[in-house]
Design a protein that fits this description.
The structure is a single chain. This protein is of the alpha/beta class. Helices cover 29% and strands 16% of the residues. It contains 25 helices and 28 strands. A 7-stranded mixed beta sheet has the order 5-4-17-16-15-6-7, covered by helices on one side. A 6-stranded mixed beta barrel has the order 21-25-22-24-23-28. Bound molecules: iron/sulfur cluster (SF4). The site of iron/sulfur cluster has 12 residues, from helix 1.
Length: 774
């Protein structure tokens, strides 16, 4: 689709002019350092900048060799930040849809449009008729993470959705129930382990997830080079599996069965040895009893793995001097996602590898971690399913409903039907199950406001688009991801480039939107929200029972924060009251934002160290190995032991040059051999009459796509794979590059009815499909 035919403005209006040529033949006049925000690896970047007086250009981006964590590592996506910044399709001014066409407006006009329409929806239908969807990029945004909270509070809706329930929510639920905090997730101590059992992860393409570390490929190669073992469990012989000492091509979605069988063998063969963590573990006997029916022979049909191989794996795991089990997206986007996530750490505990060097360890983050606040071993833990969705009665987790029910909450009539939606940095039309239904539902809303830089598959339905600045125009600190780092580090980056005329800081956009959502005038000052937030956080810190500033005068703390505003003031407060902080004078050598500013390559806070029991925030003060909700769900796993194993299953896959749908408008990343293809095993290709390079029709309960065939023995027979995040050739999208490399939307095939019931997470690993020549 030609972008200009759907835009109300002149070509390029509200956007940055296209730079002349790809490479700038300029010499840098200054060098900036910045953490890459594009994935969880958090690599340090060295950025050359030329020009002056607000007319500056990025000349080059490369890895920052002095970065305390990444030591110069960078992947192809990192250097593409320059291209993202210069992308002519990145909106530089707000857009309002008038007569079905987007027109550029001022910020005042954009907020006035929202202030004119949102109160009407609330007055007529109540706050239950509003909803918000928060996309994955917010996890990588300092302002996004901090200023979404006031927006959620102001909106006051029960309909909160996020990308977490199409991704890692099962791990958060399992960790919350076991350790007392959703981000108290043990991470694999890859650099010091002897044995890494990895399920459903491909860090050679994704660079790790829920385990923050740059250069996963280098770390894995080092593990194998020092004589360690890497066992990769994946239906596909991924790039990571190619490096493994053993690859187990399991059937899609069967990880929970394999993990349960490993527990079974540990118990049956008297291999359980919980090591130093023993005194903090509750529920061991119950777990071992639960595993009794899951013998290697019993799980062989459903996993597709030889019982002897499973038995050997359990023995190898138990015999390794140190070992860790690590599960990622393949384990969480599955029917038994929470059970699999739980069993990963059950196995770490039963083999004595929980919380020990070389095992699965807890990060001690410098800012924002709930497991460094309050009294150790005194917590409320987590409670799930405190309320349920209107249409299907799906349980809430951590204040959110499953993203899989967003469409039905919009298109199902009745009291509480969603009429107004806000999305923040998400593209759920490409990323949520049965996305065709959501696509249709979005077109029926009374009001849709998107905080997003692009007119994409989702935001083309918006009435108002509020574009944030580019990554290079924002400051950065990984509040969430550094809580999951493989080493304790802290790294702050100021904005590399100033805002262009007419752009607005991301935090101001979110704060102003919060004010309008609360009923304030369109021109309300976002500083009101900022001041309230800092006062609230200071109040909580001085009012806490424990902590570095407990009992002190809030006015003194506020004064000590100085003249900073926005995310920097909040971050300074979090750092200074955190576990390494200066405590506002209590430890003069402690961490502050000033210290991070003075150390642009980051500050190394040391290797991970054992944290049991102080990391625990469960009500019992113990590691709960047998949490009641998960124990109850094991009956479902037992029933599925005998489920039929015929038919074709669809899985996704990652590519180093792609990250969800974010990077598809960057020519240097998407050009070349098409990546959105159907991987199919040669045996299946022969049986089904599929020919390499031709097109296949893939059909599920919810949809059908036509996709180019790529025959490869890297995939298990009976399984096909299509990467997600593609499908850019729909009317109204204004992504000039992505539209030329459109691919197909695999989530037209994902079924919103398939869920992990405890977490509400969608199932993408093992979607039943039929495949035929197109
Ligand atoms: S691995 Fe690539 S995308 Fe991820 S943080 Fe590093 S440079 Fe950025």
């Amino acid at each position: 689709m030609d972008a200009d035919t759907t835009s109300g403005g002149a070509p390029g209006e509200g956007r940055r002019p296209c730079p002349e040529g790809d490479e700038m033949p300029m010499t840098a006049t200054r060098t900036a350092f910045r953490t890459c925000p594009l994935c969880e690896a958090g690599c340090g970047l060295e950025i050359g900048v030329a020009g002056s007086n607000g007319d500056e250009t990025v000349t080059r981006i490369r890895g920052d060799r002095a970065d305390v964590f990444s030591h110069g590592f960078i992947c192809p996506k990192g250097s593409a930040l320059k291209h993202l910044h210069e992308d002519p399709d990145w909106l530089r001014a707000p857009m309002v849809k008038r007569n079905d066409r987007f027109v550029e407006v001022t910020w005042d006009e954009a907020f006035a449009e929202i202030a004119r329409r949102l109160p009407g929806v609330v007055a007529e239908h109540g706050r239950d008729a509003t909803a918000i969807y928060v996309g994955n990029p917010n996890a990588h945004s300092l302002a996004g993470l901090l200023y979404l909270r006031p927006l959620l509070r102001a909106l006051g809706t029960p309909n909160v959705f996020s990308a977490s329930t199409i991704d890692q929510r099962p791990k958060e639920v399992a960790s919350g129930l076991m350790f007392g905090g959703s981000l108290t997730v043990p991470v694999p101590d890859v650099d010091r382990t002897d044995f890494l059992l990895m399920l459903g992860a491909n860090p050679f393409a994704s660079n790790g997830s829920l385990a923050t570390a740059p250069d996963w490929p280098g770390r894995i190669k080092a593990l194998v080079a020092r004589g360690g073992s890497l066992v990769v469990v994946d239906p596909r012989r991924s790039r990571t599996a190619e490096e493994a000492t053993q690859h187990l091509a399991i059937r899609p979605g069967a990880d929970a069965f394999l993990l349960m069988a490993l527990v079974n063998v540990l118990a049956a063969d008297d291999l359980v040895d919980t090591g130093a963590a023993a005194e903090y573990l509750a529920g061991i006997d119950e777990v071992l009893a639960l595993a009794e029916p899951f013998t290697p022979e019993a799980v062989a049909p459903v996993t597709g793995l030889d019982p002897d191989v499973i038995r050997r794996l359990a023995h190898d795991l138990a015999a390794a001097p140190t070992a860790c089990v690590y599960g990622r997206i393949g384990t969480t986007t599955a029917r038994f996602g929470t059970i699999a996530s739980w069993l990963v750490d059950v196995l770490n505990a039963l083999t004595g590898n929980l919380d020990r060097v070389g095992g699965a360890m807890f990060t001690r983050a410098a800012a924002g971690a709930s497991n460094t606040r309050g009294k150790p071993r005194h917590g409320r833990g987590v409670t799930i399913h405190r309320r349920h969705s209107r249409v299907r009665g799906l349980g809430e987790t951590f204040g959110e409903l499953p993203a899989s029910c967003l469409a039905e909450e919009i298109d199902t009539p009745g009291e509480g039907q969603v009429r107004a939606l806000i999305t923040v940095a998400g593209n759920p039309v490409l990323s949520t199950p049965n996305s065709g239904r959501l696509d249709a539902a979005l077109a029926t809303l009374d009001l849709y406001v998107a905080v997003d830089p692009y007119i994409n598959e989702t935001t083309r339905h918006a009435d108002v688009i509020l574009p944030p600045p580019t990554a290079l125009q924002k400051s950065h600190y990984d509040v969430a991801l550094l809580q999951l780092a493989l080493r304790n580090v802290a790294n702050y980056s100021p904005a590399v480039l100033p805002l262009d005329d007419g752009q607005l800081d991301e935090w101001r956009i979110l704060a102003r939107l919060a004010l309008v959502a609360q009923g304030a005038e369109a021109d309300a000052d976002p500083a009101v929200v900022d001041d309230l937030m800092v006062q609230t956080l200071v109040g909580a810190a001085v009012g806490a029972e424990d902590g570095p500033v407990a009992g002190r005068d809030p006015a003194e703390i506020l004064a000590a924060l100085g003249d900073r505003t926005g995310p920097e003031r909040l971050l300074d407060l979090m750092l200074r009251t955190g576990p390494y902080g200066d405590g506002f004078g209590a430890d003069p050598d402690g961490l502050t934002l000033d210290a991070l500013v003075a150390n642009p390559h980051g500050i190394d806070l040391g290797p991970l160290e054992p944290r049991l029991p102080e990391v625990l925030r469960t009500p019992s003060g113990m590691v709960e190995l047998a949490p009641e909700p998960i124990v109850a769900d094991v009956a479902r796993l037992r029933e599925a032991l005998d489920a039929p194993t015929d038919g074709m299953s669809l899985i996704g896959r990652r590519d180093l040059r792609s990250n969800n749908s974010w990077m598809h408008n960057v020519e240097v990343l998407v050009k070349g051999k098409p990546r959105c293809t159907l991987h199919v095993h040669p045996d299946d290709a022969t049986r089904l009459g599929l020919i390499d390079g031709e097109s296949a029709a893939v059909t599920s309960r919810t949809g059908k796509v036509l996709v180019p065939i790529e025959v490869t023995d890297a995939i298990r027979p009976g399984v096909v794979s299509i990467p997600h995040g593609w499908g850019h050739d729909v009317d109204g999208v204004e992504l000039s590059v992505a539209s030329r490399y459109a691919g197909v939307n695999s989530n037209l095939l994902a079924d919103e009815e398939l869920l992990d019931p405890l977490s509400g997470n969608a199932v993408f690993n093992g979607i039943p499909v039929e495949v035929a020549p197109a």
